[in-house]
Amino acid sequence: MLNNSEKFSHDYLRHDKKFPHVWCPGCGNGIVLGSLIRAIDSLEMAKDDIVLASGIGCSGRLPVYVDFNTLHTTHGRALTFATGIKLANPSLNVIAVMGDGDATAIGGNHFIHAARRNLDLTAIIINNQIYGMTGGQYSPTTPYGSKASTALYGNIEHAFSIAELAVTAGASFVARGTVFHVKLLDKLIAQAIRKKGFSVIEVMSNCHVQYGRRNNMGDPVTMMKWLRDSAKNIKPDGSMDSESEGGSFTIGVLADLEKPDYIEEYARIRQKAKELKQ
């Protein structure tokens, strides 16, 4: 009899074609992959009804390993391809997986306007605070003062927050988790997929090879402990305790709004146009 781990391998992974994976030992991307398939399993969704799209970067490899309809697109364009798929077939559950540089630098404009448009998509953004695959360049989420291959003496730009940006841009559902808090991450991803409208999950993860090594943050286990200690549960009013500020960040649901999604609005406009022509 298969245990749960073996069950997921056989049911959801392209285990006989695409493994071993390319991620560095200790990378958090595999944890995100596990949370994603557990969330989908909990929702009892048919694999043929799911489309998983990605851009370029370490996270871009994730769709390769799962037995859904998958699409590996160009850098920063996962959401544009996902938008086209959803508009062509609204019955599909479309999920875009991106890294912080992919989603908020090259794809920054697409990300902002996808949130504003509120198309029924789910965006999972793995934030390891650096461009890992392409050599450790600093990204929009690299903290001020941190070192990168393009900031040998410390990053002089200030990081912005992906989740708070999504809230401001108008996403219906926004949450943040980490690869340490796995049970919470499973639930947040399931909530995001179930939510009608544009939903965003920011996942704080570790890149011990490109970021941790340059910034003396230790091995994967040490970086996991940093995630454990830095993450603070969000309060009902969306704030943190005052003593939690500084290098800390909130985890949990930051926004959960009910608003018409793009397809509903588009159908309403089409109907209105038909009535005016009659």
What would you say this structure looks like, in words?
Helix content is 38%, strand content 16%. It is α/β, with parallel strands linked by helices and 278 residues long. An 8-stranded mixed beta sheet has the order 2-1-3-4-6-5-8-7, sandwiched between helices. The mean pLDDT is 92. Helix 7 links the parallel strand 5 and strand 6. The protein has 10 helices and 8 strands. Helix 5 packs across helix 6.
Helix content: 25-40%
Please provide the ordered H/E string of secondary-structure elements. Answer: HHEEHEHHEHEHEHHEEH
The rounded Rg comes to 19 Å
Class based on secondary structure composition and strand pairing: alpha/beta
First CA to last CA: what distance?
Answer: 64 Å
Overall mean pLDDT stands at: 92
Query: How would a textbook summarize the main sheet?
Result: 8 strands, mixed
Widest sheet: strand order?
A: 2-1-3-4-6-5-8-7
Kindly state the number of beta strands: 8
**Content of β-strand:** 15-25%
- Uncertain residue segments: none
SS field, number of helical segments: 10
How would the global form be characterised? globular
In short:
The protein is 38% helix and 16% strand. Strand 5, helix 7 and strand 6 form a beta-alpha-beta unit. Helix 2 packs across helix 7 and helix 5 packs across helix 6.
Task: Name the descriptors.
278 residues; alpha/beta; eight-stranded mixed β-sheet; 10 helices
Helix/strand layout:
Layout: H1 4-12, H2 29-43, E1 50-54, E2 69-72, H3 78-88, E3 93-99, H4 100-106, H5 108-117, E4 122-127, H6 162-169, E5 173-178, H7 182-194, E6 199-204, H8 208-212, H9 220-230, E7 231-233, E8 249-256, H10 262-277
Parallel strand pairs: 1-2, 1-3, 3-4, 4-6, 5-6, 7-8
Antiparallel strand pairs: 5-8
